[in-house]
Queue: 2 jobs
Job 1
Amino acid sequence: MKIGVLTSGGDAPGMNAAIRAVVRQADALGHEVWGIHQGYQGLLEGDMAPLPSRACANILQRGGTILHTARCAEFYFAEHRVLAAAKLKATGIEALVVIGGDGSFRAAEALQREHGVACAGIPGTIDNDLPGTERTLGFDTALNTAVEAIDRIRDTASSHGRLFLVEVMGRASGMLAVHTALACGAEAVLYPESPDDSYEALVSRLNSNWLRGKRSSIVVVAEGDTTGRAMAVGERLKRDHGLDLRVVVLGHVQRGGSPSAIDRIWGSRWGCEAVRRLDRGERGFYLGEVAGALVAQPLSRILEPQPVPPGDLGRLVSVLAR
Ligand code: F6P
C-alpha cells in the first residue's frame, strides 16, 4: 500500500516524531510512504514525494514539521477536494495519515466521506482542544515552554512588585492557559470557558490579593478569552486603576522548540498505531489518549459539537493563590 502523510494547520512539537513513526512502521510492514508538503495546500498542488526511512533520521528531537504545514482555506470547498482526491489517485496513494487539529480532521473526514480516501488522524495542536482525547501533540511541550517563561517573569514581577498579564495561545480553548496558570501558581487565569470570567471579577480578585499583602501578581490570559486580549485588558486596568503593570504575549514561542519526551513518545505511538490499523484495513479514525490508554475515535466524531472544557482546574488556580 502507498500511504500519504501530511501535517496541517498550526505546527506542534512532536509532529516529526509522528511522521518518523508512520514512515518506519510502514517500512516494517512493507508499505511505502509519500510525504505531502505543506498540508492540504501541497496536496492540491501535487507537491508530494516518496519519504524513505532514512529521510527521517534525526528528526525525533526537532520542533516544527519537516513536511511543512499550511492553513488551506480552499479545502473548505468541495470542488477543491475533488481535485485533491484526483491527485491522490494519480499518485496511487490509497491511504492518508493526517497530523493536525480540528480543521485538519474535518478536511480528512470530508475527503473520506466524499471520495472514499482511507484516512487516519493523529492529534497535533498545542491547544489540546479535540474531543475524545485528553492529549494532543505539542501541548505538553508548549505548556512547559510557557511555564519556564512565566517562572522568569515571576522573578522580575516580584522584584518590582508589579502585575504582569501573560497571554498564552488558545484561540477557542483555555486548556493551555489553565494548565499554565496552575503550574506557575498564577494569581488568576482568564479563559473562554470560565464560568466566572469577567473584568470586574478580575479587579476584585486583584484587590483582595492586594489587601492580603500580595504586591506582585501574574494573570494568565488565554488568547481567545472573552474579556479581551491581554494587551486590551492591561490598557483598561491602567486606565481605570493607574496600575504599573506589564503585558507579555508569549505567542509563537510556544509553538517552537524541541518536543518533550511525552510528545515524542505519543507521536511515536500514534504514528505506529495509525499505520498498523490502516494495514489491518481500518479507515476513518483518529487516535487519542484517555486515562493513559491509546484510544481511537471515528473520524466523524470531529463533527459533533463537543467543547473540551479544562474542568475544575481554573477554580483551583484561585483557591491556591491565597
Ligand atoms: O491552533 C494552534 C494555534 O497555535 C492557536 O493557539 C493560535 O490561535 C493559532 O494556532 C495561531 O495560528 P497562526 O500561526 O496561523 O497565526
Job 2
Amino acid sequence: MAEYGNMQTGTLMAGKRGVVMGVANKNSIAWGIAQQLAAQGAELAFTYQGEGLERRVRPLVESIDMDFMIPADVTDDAGMDAAFDQIKAKWGKIDFLVHAIAFAGKDELQGSMVENTTREGFARAMDISVFSFIDCSRRAAEIMPDGGAIICMTYLGAERTVPSYNVMGVAKAALEASTRYAARDLGPKGIRVNAISAGAMRTLSLAGIRGGKSLMGTGREWSLLKEDTRMEGVAGCALYLLSPIGHSIAGEVLHVDAGYHAVGVPDLPEEG
Ligand code: NAD
C-alpha cells in the first residue's frame, strides 16, 4: 500500500509521467514533491546523484509503489545522455520535470562572499545549480512533444542578501533568470517553466550553510504566518505548477515561505 505522508490524494496527475531529480533522503524537497505528485496519480522516474545514494532513495521510491530509478550526476554528460535515453526508451515521452538540485562548497557558504568565492567554486556552483537546469530543460523538452511543465527550486537569497548564502545566492539569481529564458524558449511548444522560491527547510543542503539552523529560526519569526515553511505547501505549489490547474502560468517565481519575502521590517518592540 503506497504511503504519501500528509499529501492530498486525488487524480489531478492521473495518466501523467515525469522525472523527479534531486531526492537524496526523506527530507529532500524533491521527495515531498514526489509524494504529492504520486498521491495525485502521477507515474514517476527518479534520478539520483550516484550509486552511493541508492540505498537511501530506493526504500522511499518503493514506499510509493514505484521502481523507475536512474543514477545521474548532472556534471557527467555521458551519464545524463544515458539517463534520458533510458527514460525515452521506457516511456517515449514525459509530461513534467522537477529539478531540485544545487551545490556549493562548504568553504563558499560562510563568511564573506567577496573573500571566499574562488573561480573554481563559482564555476562549480553555477554548473551544478544553474547549467544543469538549462541542460535538463533541453533534454526534457525533447521528450515533451505534447507540451508539459518544468519546475526548479530557488530561494530568497537570489533577490536579497542572506548571511553565508553567498555564491549560492548568485547562482539562484541566475537560476531565476534561466527560468524566464527557458519559459520564453519553450512556451511556444506548450511547455510551462516556473520556479518555486521556498523558505528555509531542514534538509541536507541547508546543513551545508554556516548558520543554516538560524536561517530557519529567523524565517519563522519574521514570517507573516509565524511558522516554518511546510513541505506540504511547497509540494502543493509544485502540484499546482505541474498540473493542468496551473495553466497560463509561465516564467514565474512563486514564493512558498510563510510570507517571509513580503516583510521589509520585522515586528517592532512595544514602545513604553
Ligand atoms: P537536498 O540536499 O535534499 O537536495 C539537493 C539534491 O541535489 C540532492 O539530492 C543531491 O544529490 C543533488 N545534487 C547535488 N549535486 C548533484 C550532482 N552533481 N548531480 C546530481 N544531483 C546532485 O536539499 P534540498 O533542500 O531538498 O534541495 C533541493 C533544492 O531546493 C535545491 O535547489 C535547493 O537549493 C533548493 N532550496 C532549498 C531550500 C532549503 O531551505 N532547504 C530552500 C529553497 C530552495
